[in-house]
Amino acid sequence: MGVVIIDGSTVKAFVKDEEQFKKSVEERFAALDINNDGVLSRSELRKAFESMRLLEAHFGVDVVTPPEQLTKLYDSIFDKFDCDSSGSVDLDEFRTQMKEIMLAIADGLGSCPIQMVLEDDDPSFLKQAAELEDSKLHKDNPSSS
Ligand SMILES: [Ca+2]
C-alpha cells in the first residue's frame, strides 16, 4: 500500500496502453462473470460498479445516494453497456464502455491531480492506472524501489 498522485494524463496513459488495458479489462470481465457464461448480466454488472465505487465516491469523498436512485443509475449504465440490447454485456461491449468511462474520468480530472491511496484489495481501474504511474516513478528513480 502506498500513496500516489494521479491526474488525467495518468488515466489516459493507462487506457492508451492497449495491451495492458485489454489485459486488465479481460481479467476484470472474467472475475465479474460469476456464472462463467461469457457475458455479464444486469446484476453482475451492478456488482462491478459497486466494487469500483465510481458512483458512490466522487474524488474520494463519499456521497450518499438513495437506493432507488442508484438502481435507476445502474439500469441506465447497463443499457449503455448493452449496445445491441441483447440483455447481457459481452467482452467487446464491456471493453468499449470501460474505455469511454476511463477517458471521461481522465477529462474530469484534467491536469488537476488527486491523491490516491493504493489499497491491496482495491480492484479499481483507477488503482491500476495509479500503479502504472507508480512503477514509472520507480523506473525513473531505481534507488527508491
Ligand atoms: Ca454471466
Automatic annotation (TrEMBL):
Domain of life: Eukaryota
An example Gene Ontology molecular-function term: calcium ion binding
Domain EF-hand, chain residue ranges per copy: 20-55, 69-104
Pfam annotation, one family: EF-hand_7
Family annotation (InterPro entries): EF-hand-dom_pair, EF_Hand_1_Ca_BS, EF_hand_dom
UniProt entry keywords in alphabetical sequence: Calcium
Protein name as catalogued: EF-hand domain-containing protein
Taxonomic source organism: Punica granatum
